[in-house]
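Usage

Read records sequentially. Each one opens with the input sequence:
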Amino acid sequence: MNPLEPAGAEPGSAFTVTLDGRPITALPGQTVAAALWTAGVISWRTTRGSGRPRGVLCGIGVCFECLVTVNGHPNQRACLVPVRPGDAIRTQEGTGHDGC
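and closes with the structure output:
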């Protein structure tokens, strides 16, 4: 293998997940953040108090700007969570827990 040539990797077949009930196409190996970015979504959380929009900041799991609810589990870092067929992703307000 020549490191100067493309690896020739091909993604598997696309599948569907949902963001707040809206279908989003994703590819195997993508994170939730990558799938949302590919779909044109750049913000999926609002801050506590001021309700300011947030999305990916660091992209490596150091910060907590990209928090999202996946399959009912709040506070998942979208840049780290691999997307899976059928995932139900929800935008998150504040802490992701009702009433907070």
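Summary fields computed downstream for this record:
- The chain has a mean pLDDT of 89.
- The radius of gyration is 15 Å.
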